[in-house]
Every structure is written in structure tokens, then in C-alpha cells.
Specification:
Elements (H helix, E strand, L loop, with lengths): L4 H14 L4 H4 L5 H10 L11 H11 L2 H11 L1 H24 L3 H15 L2 H14 L4 H13 L3 H14 L3 H13 L3 H13 L5 H14 L3 H14 L4 H16 L6 H13 L4 H17 L16
Length: 313
């Protein structure tokens, strides 16, 4: 319909008072703060608009700053942000649980050292177990395991020190027996005997083995009667081991070197040592020495099919 200029001006003024269509109705992804800034430029009342272009530019720069832009982006991509945040949170929780339930460094190094011992990699075992002990000096298990590795490497003094510390932390019969063995190998036979006896006192479960080792220690100390006592004990408790029989042969050989006759039972012990085995050059050399000594005293023991030294067939 036809309107006068006055009426048209009135309608346009009333429409302008209502303001423009809100920006977010046109585009919901526009940030509300940015939308209000744009709408303020179109406000009907002058006091609601930015006072100067400089004020508007400062406000716009603030809204376009990286932080505000990131916040707007996350608001516009809520589902993606939510799913990404959930995944990140789950990853953080998984990592936290991994470290929470992961064994301490000392335990991991102990486990690695034990595995190396099982594989026969004794030098590597010593390295790992040393790391474990540095982290936890109170671990008797790590000290014992390093003692075993050093023992296998032939480092008996180091092995003894580890066993000794391990026993102080936790008194186990096997630890004391291992300590005694290392003392014997470094020729501290008196101390080794004392340690073997202590291992028996605290309940070592294979006494025949220790009785043999005690007998050997006394044999090395030249205390032949004490040696015989413990070697006989070892044989009575368990006659399935070669060592006490062989050590008895050595005992009779030592007595023979001091002028005593070699009894028939010495040859029975020699036969038993050979029968049980295992064979070794050292064992046969010792047995040969017994027979040679006996033959020098009794020519009847010499096989007639072989010449005596200095004679011909």
C-alpha cells in the first residue's frame, strides 16, 4: 500500500529500534562474545555502541587472540573435543596405572639378574643384581643371587662377601652353607668348618653333603681322625655320592704316607668311588696314587702281566 514519506520514515525508525537479527540466529557457530561485539556496532542507541574505532579494534583484537579463538573452536566442535578429551584422559589413566603397578626398579633389576643366572650369563647377572642392591641394599635375595653368580664366575671371595651380607639380613641355612663353601675354596678351612656346622645347626636339609665338606676341611687341615669321623657320617647318611668315598681314599693315602698300612676297606672305597662316578682325571689320579702306594709296599698287588720298574719281561 502507498505510504507517505512521513509514515515510511516512522516505520523504518521503529524497525531500526528493534535492532538487527541476532548474529547467532544467522550462524550459531559464531562465539556469543564476538556476536555481541558485532551487534554493539549496530545498536540503535549511540551510548551502546563503541565510543571510537580504536575501542572497537582493541575489543576485536582481544576476541581474535589465540586463546579466545581456541575456546571458540572447542565450543563449535564440542563432540570432537569431548571424544578427544576422553581418549586423552584414558591414556593418562593407563599410563598412570602402568607406573603405579609397575615393579620398582630394584625389583625389575633383581628379576633380570635371576633370569641371567638361569641362562648362565653370570657377568650380566652380576651387573643387574648390583643395580638392584644399590637401589635396595636390604635385599637378601639380590645379595644371595649375586653371590651365586660370582661363585659361578670363580670369584669366591666376592661370593663369600655377598653370602655373608645376605645371611646377616636373613638367616637361611643354604646361605650359610654357600658361605662355607666359598671359604673352603679360598682355603679358609677352619672358618669353613665353623660355617658348615652353623648351617647344620640352623637346619640345612642335606646334612650328608655338609658332613663330607667338613671332613674334607679337616683333611686339608691335617686332622685325619676328625676327617674320618665326618666322612663316615656322610657315607652312613647317604651313600649315593662319590665325594665322601674319594675323600676317604685320600685319607688312607695320607695315613700311608705317614707309615700306616693301607687297609682293605680303602680299596672298597676306591671301587665305590669309581662305580658311582662321574669319572674325572683328578679322581683317577688320586685312586692311582692309592694303588701305587699300596703296590710299593706289597708286590703281590702288582699284576704279573706288567713289568716292575727296572725289570724286563
Amino acid at each position: 500500500m502507498d505510504l507517505s514519506v512521513k509514515e515510511l520514515a516512522f516505520q523504518l525508525c521503529e524497525r531500526q529500534k528493534k535492532g538487527p537479527t541476532p548474529v547467532r540466529e544467522r550462524n550459531g557457530q559464531v562465539d556469543s562474545r564476538l556476536a555481541r561485539l558485532i551487534e554493539s556496532c549496530l545498536a540503535f542507541e549511540p551510548e551502546q555502541r563503541p565510543e571510537t574505532v580504536r575501542d572497537f579494534a582493541a575489543a576485536l583484537r582481544k576476541e581474535l587472540a589465540p586463546v579466545r579463538r581456541a575456546v571458540r573452536w572447542m565450543g563449535n566442535h564440542f563432540k570432537l573435543v569431548a571424544s578427544t578429551s576422553a581418549l586423552a584422559f584414558a591414556s593418562i589413566v593407563a599410563v598412570a596405572l602402568f607406573f603405579a603397578f609397575r615393579p620398582p626398579y630394584s625389583v625389575r633389576q633383581l628379576q633380570q639378574g635371576l633370569a641371567y643366572n638361569e641362562q648362565g650369563q653370570y657377568a650380566s647377572a652380576v651387573d643387574s643384581l648390583s643395580n638392584s642392591i644399590r637401589e635396595d641394599p636390604s635385599s637378601s635375595e639380590a645379595l644371595f643371587a649375586r653371590g651365586r653368580a660370582n661363585q659361578r664366575l670363580g670369584k669366591h671371595l666376592l661370593a663369600y662377601k655377598d653370602y655373608n651380607l645376605a645371611y646377616r639380613l636373613k638367616a637361611m641355612p643354604l646361605t650359610k652353607a654357600c658361605e662355607a663353601y666359598c671359604l673352603s675354596r679360598i682355603k679358609y678351612h677352619k672358618d669353613a668348618i665353623a660355617a658348615y656346622l652353623l648351617a647344620l645347626d640352623v637346619g640345612y636339609d642335606s646334612p650328608a653333603l655338609l658332613y663330607n665338606n667338613i671332613g674334607f676341611g679337616y683333611l686339608m687341615l691335617g686332622q685325619i681322625d676328625n676327617a674320618e669321623k665326618y666322612l663316615q657320617l656322610a657315607i652312613r647318611l647317604d651313600g649315593s655320592h662319590q665325594a665322601p668315598y674319594y675323600n676317604m681314599v685320600q685319607l688312607f693315602l695320607r695315613r700311608a704316607l705317614h707309615g700306616q698300612p693301607i687297609p682293605a676297606v680303602a680299596f672298597a672305597f676306591a671301587t665305590k668311588a669309581v662305580t658311582i662316578g662321574p669319572p674325572s682325571a683328578e679322581r683317577y689320579q688320586g685312586l692311582a696314587a692309592l694303588y701305587a702306594t699300596a703296590a710299593r709296599r706289597d708286590s703281590a698287588l702288582i699284576c704279573p702281566s706288567y713289568p716292575i720298574r727296572g725289570q724286563s719281561r
